Amino acid sequence: MTGQRTYRPAAPTPQALVAYTAYGFVVVAGFLTVEHHGGQAAAWPTHVATAALFTVLWPGQASWYGRDDSPQTRTTNPTSTLLGISALAWLIVLIAGLICGHDPVEVARVASWNVFGVLALLLAYRVWRAEPGWFPHTPADVCVFTGLVFVSSIPAVLGGAMPGVAAWLPASTADLAWWGTVWMLPLEYGGLLGFVLLSPVETYTTVRFPTWQPVALVGSVICIHLAMSFPELPLSWLMLLPALWVGVTMTPRIACIALVMIGALLGGLSQPQGSSLEEAVRFLVLSVTAMAIAMLGVSLVMFRERHAHTQTQGLAATRQAAAQSAILDVVVSSMTDGVLLTDRHGRVVSSNPAARALLGAPRHGVDASAGWVRRYDVRGSHGTDLNDAQITALEQPPLQRAPSTDHGDLTLAPDGSALDAEVATADGAGGWRTLAVHTRALTRTPQSLDAHQVVLLKDVTASRQRRQELETFAGVVAHDLRNPLGAVSLWLESAAMDVDDGDPAAAREPLARARQAGRRMRQVIDDYLAYTVGREGVLRVEELDLGAVIREVAAVNLRGPRGPRVDVLADAWVQADRTLLRQLFANLIGNAVKYARDGEDPYVRIRAVHDDPAGWVRIYVEDKGIGLDAKDAETVFAPFGRTSHGTAMREGTGLGLALCRTIVTRHHGQITAYRNAWGGATVELTLPQGRAMSD
């Protein structure tokens, strides 16, 4: 059922079996230290062993308090598991006491206070920490644990947590002080040692001054001995020096082990010589001093650990930020679009290579403190000068500029936080380059980086030209198709009228005219389709025998009443697309035939020179036609471009030579046209040389 938790008992593990076995031996050892004549224990390790047992077997340490308690992360009930550990520990204490011959009622009382007293102590400590693990991470954790140990000693002693101590009625104040100290001191040091040895500790500090550690150890023993040997002298402060040495030079694990050794030394030297209240109080004071030493040492090492952890995280964050910054620099530097970071006055703070290439060199004589629009001579999209409002809109971050509606070609985003525009810059060749500009304010920047706006620049010259070509193309297509389509419709109506008048023979001429208009329309469609395929089709480059391809194309054009004479002197190999290469020379030969002189047979000579320049084949297509003027040498290669003679004498779409330039350009070659010595036209082009020729 969804949302319902199902628990299954956890199987005993080797770790649990070892822990219970060791716990049983420690409890038996504690009962064996009870003096038969006095009925009191000289040492009582059971409560320390109980704390260690719970530390090892505590269920769900990664998700106990304040964490997800879903059945996907836990298969046992933590509460029942904890109660099961407590019950088993209580049973072990009871059996150990009975084996050693003690009173069953007293043993049950001792077992109850040891097990459930320690359980309450650890529960309170765990609630305070609210994170996995037992080892104290901060000085506050040490203080809380020490305070809980002190608080737990009162009900433990009054309740009779140790053999020989009457429940709720200690024999004397000296007994109360003695047994309270016996409870606190081992649990404080034993708890710290247990937390260190039985909990995983991620250490960030290192041992400082390792060569001086033996000297410091001897000095610590001397300090403790002097303070204990001469109580009448003000030397108690000497006992703090070992704690300082431990706290400032050792790692957490080593520090706790050293502090436990110091505590054992203090306990051995501070055993009371009698049962008087004075001796008990003296023992209590020395024990509290030992606990203060433990607290001071662990607090210092925890402070160092926290500081080292913070430094480690800071260094890691610094390295990560540096790595991310390096990656960002590489990404921005490798971008083909320009990126500018500008300050509140429009001055360039940083730029990538693409931005510098798009904007060119700064204007001569313009102050470096000027904004980027003025400094790089940025114009409107049509090459016009920008007014002050437009310059302000481009240079100032959108969040700080004053509202204005006089932006001309500039378009503000609806939320006012960004600006999109088209501007123009000099291309270095006497023309203008069109740039799409997108600006956005940076609302959060470091104080060290005086950047308030990011400007993205994208070269849209080609796309804008392409858009204009498409618009022109669409208009010309509509115009060129409308005329033959109208002619077809007109002549079909004329033929229909002749048929209705009962004169089918008279309908033949309108039908012939309609077929001629249909052929014209099909030719227009074929030319446009060839032009589109030549521009957008996938290139399939291969090694081709140039002469063979040209002869194949010429053979097709030789058919008909005015088939041209074609001389092919092209013994060369090229790397080209076979289909496009055929289309290229079909257009060139067809163009020569179309513009032949009246009364003369068309003549075309095609010759090739390889390695001119190296790695290229230079091809000359020469005819004896009507030729072309120098002013038309570039016009004929433009889409729908024709010479004045061609427009007056021949029909056509004006896409033939435009397609030729497209095909040559896609093969990374060049093509030009000029008048030759015969008075006709020569088309000169280059194509990549084939490897067969170089071999």
What report would you give on this structure?
This protein has 695 residues and is of the alpha+beta class. It contains 20 helices and 14 strands. Strands 1, 2, 3, 4, 5, 6 and 7 form a seven-stranded antiparallel β-sheet that branches. The chain has a five-stranded mixed β-sheet with strand order 9-11-12-14-13. The protein has a two-stranded antiparallel sheet with strand order 8-10. A hairpin with a 5-residue loop joins β11 and β12 (616-623). α2 runs parallel beside α6 (173-198) and α5 (139-159) runs antiparallel to α10 (277-334). The longest helix has 58 residues, at 277-334. The radius of gyration is 49 Å and the shape is elongated. The chain starts with 13 loop residues before the first helix and ends with a helix. 33% of the residues are buried.
